[in-house]
Specification:
Blueprint: H1 4-17, E1 22-28, H2 40-48, E2 53-59, E3 62-67, E4 72-77, E5 82-87, E6 97-105, E7 108-116, E8 122-131, E9 134-140, H3 157-166, H4 171-176, H5 186-196, H6 209-228, H7 263-267, E10 275-279, E11 282-286
Antiparallel strand pairs: 1-6, 2-3, 3-4, 4-8, 5-7, 6-7, 8-9, 10-11
Helix pairs in contact: 1-6, 3-6, 5-6
The chain binds a DNA duplex (16 and 16 nucleotides) through loops.
Family: Belongs to the FPG family.
InterPro entries: FPG_cat, FPG_Glyclase, FPG_N, H2TH_FPG, Ribosomal_uS13-like_H2TH, Znf_DNA_glyclase/AP_lyase
GO molecular function: 8-oxo-7,8-dihydroguanine DNA N-glycosylase activity; class I DNA-(apurinic or apyrimidinic site) endonuclease activity; damaged DNA binding; double-stranded DNA binding; zinc ion binding
Length: 299
DNA sequence: CCTCGCTCCTGGTCGC
DNA sequence: TGCGACCAGGAGCGAG
């Protein structure tokens, strides 16, 4: 499943191959992949066709390409299984192809193909508005409520700390809450908690500034590591913008490691086994020794 | 306003 | 071998 590092890889690919190209044709093969585009496929096609694409941006797992005209952006969310492929038109359509955007750049015709098996992702056109905390930056209106992600240079730990102190929730729930900070999914939430030696059921209002800093720094670190390795994925569904799979599972220390020894404990000569628990209807992995259950846990 | 559980969707896997 | 149950999960939405 695409996590933030994969989305950043896709953004870079889109920037290289699609930015400053002209849209010559748009084909919607499955209306369900037009997420949130209430006006329907005809409107999407009519407004996108003929446009010149501008720069590519990202916040959390939202990716968008600004259009040269009209303060509009083509917003892309990969969801669970979305892929963006840049292909020559003579290459056969892949399975689950949902939207085809034919582009022309330097007299070369290519296709930006949106492929999605589970249809949790999708595309839509949205208006660009100034970001509230930094009005020089433009952001799609539907993405404006999303917090900055840990890779954003304007990400502010102090703001997050104050937000968490006011909340009555659990730490993992807050990590996954996209209005607090964006781009942290189930996998990186578990990895960040493990590295910060904090338990997911820790009540947010009891967190110290130091602990908040630790867990978000950990999230940033593990995502930068993934990015340096070309994206995290152990799901063959994920393919980057040029159609190449990314692999990174060896760098995950807890996620998916139920019953396997904790790598930190192992260095101390202890054999603690990673535990899996149901939390928020999702799997959570943690080390019972490194991440003890807090005295006043909030499930 | 805040918190939290439900829901969308498909394909792979497992037990009987 | 067939079939149903279950699992994976981002994020919007609405109930309380």
């Amino acid at each position: 499943m695409p996590e933030l590092p994969e989305v950043e890889v896709v953004r870079r690919g889109v920037q290289q191959w699609a930015s400053h190209a002209r849209v010559t044709d748009v084909e919607v093969l499955d209306d369900r992949s037009l997420r949130r585009h209430a006006q329907g496929p005809e409107d999407f096609i009519a407004r996108l066709a003929g446009q010149r694409l501008g720069e590519s941006y990202r916040r959390g797992k939202y990716l968008w390409i600004a259009l040269d005209e009209g303060y509009l952006a083509l917003v892309i969310h990969l969801g669970m299984s979305g892929q963006v492929l840049i292909s020559d038109p003579d290459i056969a359509d892949p399975k689950h192809l949902k939207i085809r955007i034919t582009i022309s750049k330097n007299d070369r015709i290519q296709e930006l193909r949106f492929v999605d098996q589970r249809i949790f992702g999708g595309l839509y056109l949205d208006t660009l508005i100034p970001a509230e905390d930094h009005p020089e930056q433009l952001i799609p209106a539907t993405v404006a409520h999303i917090g900055r992600d840990p890779l954003d240079s304007l990400f502010d730990t102090e703001t997050v700390f104050r937000t968490l102190r006011k909340k009555k929730s659990s730490l993992k729930r807050a990590l996954l809450d996209q209005s607090v900070s964006s781009g942290i999914g189930n996998i990186y939430a578990d990895e960040a908690l493990f590295r910060a030696r904090l338990h997911y059921a820790r009540p947010t209002e009891t967190l110290t500034r130091k602990e908040v800093s630790r867990v978000y720094s950990a999230a940033e670190q593990v995502m930068r590591l993934a990015l340096a390795q070309g994206g995290t994925s152990f799901d063959a569904l994920y393919v980057n913008v040029n159609g190449e799979s990314g692999y990174f599972d060896r760098s995950l220390n807890v996620y998916g490691r139920e019953g396997k020894p904790c790598v930190v404990c192992q260095e101390d000569g202890l054999e603690t086994l990673i535990v899996r628990r149901k939390f928020m209807n999702r799997s959570s992995y943690y080390c019972p020794k490194c991440q003890p259950i807090p005295r006043r846990a909030r499930w």
